[in-house]
Amino acid sequence: MLDYELQIAVIGAGHGGKAMAAEMAVRGYTVRLYNRSYEHIEDIAARGGIEVTLEDGQQVFGPIPYVTSDMAFALADAKLVMIVVPASAHRDIALACAPHLRDGQIVVLNPGRTGGALEFRSVLRENNCTADVIIAETETFLFASRSNGPAQAQIFRRKNTVPLAALPSARTSEVLDVLQEVYPQFIIAPNVLYTSLNNMGAVFHPALTLLNAGWIEATGGQFEFYIDGVTPSTAQLLERLDRERVTVATALGIRAQSARDWLARAYSAYGNNLHQAIHANPGYRGITAPRTLRHRYIFEDVPYSLVPISELGKRFGVDVWGMESMIQIACVIDGVDYRHRGRTLERMGLVGLSLREITRLVETGSPDPEPSPSDPYGRP
User: Fold this and answer.
1) By three-state DSSP, how is residue 380 classified?
2) Catalytic annotation on 132?
3) Looking at 90, 242, 275, 301, which residue is catalytic?
4) β partners of residue 138
5) One of 15, 90, 205, 275 is an active-site residue; which one?
6) Contact 198/163 with Cβ under 8 angstroms?
7) Of 100, 202, 267, 289, which sits with the fewest C-beta atoms within 10 Å of its C-beta?
8) CB count in 10 Å sphere of residue 75
9) pTM
C-alpha cells in the first residue's frame, strides 16, 4: 500500500528532476518541485504540473501543486528530499539546504557521481548544520530521460535496479525503508565508496563526448550518442577507463562491477565486449548526442567523476593515465582547470586519511575508532 501522505521535495528541474517529479505525481504522491531560478519553472507552475511521456509511449499529466524557488518552502514538510541536479551544483544546494534541514529528513543525491555524499556532508558541517539528517547517494540516475519542453519530460527507460548507500552505511536501511515504497528499484549498496566508484558516467560520458567532439560540433549532436558514437575504437578506450576505475575501487577495498556487468544488471544488455553490450541496450536507442561541447558530460563528469577517481587512484598508487588524459583534453578544449575546480580529496574531507580511516568514515560517520567498552576514553 502506497503512503500518499509521504511529502517529497524534488530539488532541481532539469530533465531528471522533471521526469522524477512528474512520474511520482502521476502515481499520487505530493511533490514540491524546487529550482534555483523561477523563470525555468514558471510554465510548470502555470500549468500546475508536467506532461510526461512514459516508457510505453503513454503521455500522462503529473500534477505538481507546489513549484518554488524558495528552498525553505520546498523543504518545509518534506520527509524525503530527492536532489536531482548536476554534481557541479551539489555544493551550492548543500549551502542552500543547510539552514533549513530538520531532524529526521532523508536527503538523496540522484546520483552522487563520485564523492557526492562526502562533499555534501562536509559542506553541511562547515556551515554548522546540526540537524540529524541522513545523506545518501545513488549509483546512477534511475531513468534514462530527456526534457522535451518547458513543462514536458520523457522517460526512455527505467533501470532494473539502482544501488544506494547512506553516509554512514549503518543508516542505509533507514533510507530504504522509506524509499523502496516509492521506487522498489533501489537496492542496498555496501557504502558510498561503492556507489561512488561504480559511477558509470565516469566511463561513458566524458570520453564519448571528447572522442566525438568534431562530429558534435559539425552536426549539433544530430546522431545517436550511444549507438553511432560508440564504435569499436571508442569502445576500446571506454574499456581502458573502466579497468582503471575498477582497479581504484579494488585499492579501496571495493569490489566494483565492470561496465559490462552493470549494463547486464541495469538494462539486461549483454555482449562479449563493451561495444556489443552498449549496442544491445534498447534504452540507449533514440538518445541523441549533446548539441554542444558545453555540456554536463564535460563540465560535470570530468571534475566530479574523473577527477575524484583519479585523485583516489594517485593517493593509493593506481595508474590512471587514461583518466588523466581525458581530464587534460577536457581542460584544453574548455580552457578550464578541472583538476582545481573538481571534487578533490580536500572537498570530500579525505585529506590525510588512511584507507582504514576512510573505511571507518563511510561506515560509521567518523574516521576515528570508537572507544573500547572497557575504556570509554579510548586509551590504548
Assistant:
1) coil
2) no
3) 301
4) 164
5) 205
6) yes
7) 100
8) 22
9) 0.87
Longest dimension (CA), the chain: 69
Q: What angle do CA 363, 365, 367 make, to 5 degrees?
A: 85
Domain count, the chain: 2
Please tell me whether residues 153 and 206 are part of one structural domain.
no
Find the helix packing angle between 307-315 and 321-334, rounded to 10°.
140
Residues 12 and 161 in one domain: yes
Catalytic site residue 205? Answer: yes
The DSSP output letter for 224 is: B
Question: Which residue type sits at 269?
Answer: A
Co-location of 348 and 249 in the same domain: yes
pLDDT in tens, 205-259: 999 999 999 999 999 999 999 999 999 999 999 999 999 999 999 999 999 999 9
Burial of 301 (0-12, 13-18, 19+ CB in 10 A): buried
The vertex-10 CA angle with 4 and 13, nearest 5°, equals 135
User: Could you give the CA distance from residue 204 to residue 194 in angstroms, rounded to a whole number?
Assistant: 18
Q: Tell me how far apart the alpha carbons of residues 339 and 346 are, in angstroms, rounded to a whole number.
A: 12
Return the C-alpha torsion angle 48, 52, 58, 61, nearest 10. -10
Q: Are 186 and 203 in contact (CB under 8 A)?
A: no
Choosing from 153, 169, 197, the residue where a domain stops is 197
Average pLDDT score over the chain: 93
* Omega cis (within 30) before 168: yes
DSSP-derived pairing of the beta strands 66-68 and 106-109: unpaired
